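Two records follow; treat each independently.
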Amino acid sequence: MSEHRRYKRRTVPQAVEVIDTMTERVVGRIGNLSAGGMMLIGTTAFTEEALYQLRFTLPDGRGRLRPIQVGAQMLWSDSGSGSGQLWTGFRFIAIPTRDAGFLRIWADAAEVGDPA
């Protein structure tokens, strides 16, 4: 099966919480991530096509946590494997250039912590 996505997706092995910056509430954790979007695993129901301001942290190459804030559009949602669990797909529509570059490097890295 060939991959036809625009950006390479990377599974996030540890729990990375995602915060809605408008409410400062945790809305889930990252299932997979790319420079262009993410799949969120949680119990929060989002409005299709709506825009959200989200924040999460990723480890850099030195093990330090780097905060990332994105503007994201909700694209799809599906039932997850657990009771009440939802998988939600987001497309990033606004991200600072510096963070976008970091995400591209992070998503292409073979292991967490590879980006410099």
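The next record belongs to a different protein.
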Amino acid sequence: MNDAARPSEIVQSPLERLKITEIFLSLQGEANAVGWPTVFVRLTGCPLRCQYCDTAYAFHGGQWREIDDIVAEVARQGVRHVCVTGGEPLSQKRCLSLLQKLCDAGFDVSLETSGAIDIAGVDPRVSRVVDLKTPGSKEMARNRLENIPLLTARDQVKFVLCGRGDYEWAREMVAEHRLAERCDVLFSPSKSELDPRDLADWIVADRLPVRFQMQLHKLLWNDEPGR
């Protein structure tokens, strides 16, 4: 026989699949793309358990979807902006392939990640929104500080603040790591834990080089899934 592999010897590569909780069209509610019609691709699973999490329904369940099918569904929505979120999307390794294929297809892609997983492999065309966990989140120990030197002007760092202690911790992090010189820095009040007016007053009083934000989708639709 020739050197060609016998049929039984041909190794079939596994389909590139991800477990998906939901794909939906809405308005981006936060970060620097706020207000844009955006397709959200919510991956299933997260290794963290932040005490204020509003997407715990994405911890389990979901459906396996081929990555090419996901990209095709995003394209059918007819908008330019795509946000890959979770859960923690990077807890599924093939998320990196999805991000690359979305960029290759010409979409403006953002990634919402907890910052507990290495972001080095993320396609450089993606805007990475890294959520640094505060003491009030109960998951501060999971912060991967090695991600900070990887941040570029395309990226954003988000702090969800539960009170004055979280604010002071975040203020020190911004100064210590010179975060505002690396990328946009976002401060958000945790819903029902911190009065937004208090946070706004603190930022103004300290003249912090950060952007105050509230989640637009919660103002419009509260915590309704898929909005």
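Discussion point: The chain is about 25% helix and 25% strand. How would you locate this feature using only the token line?
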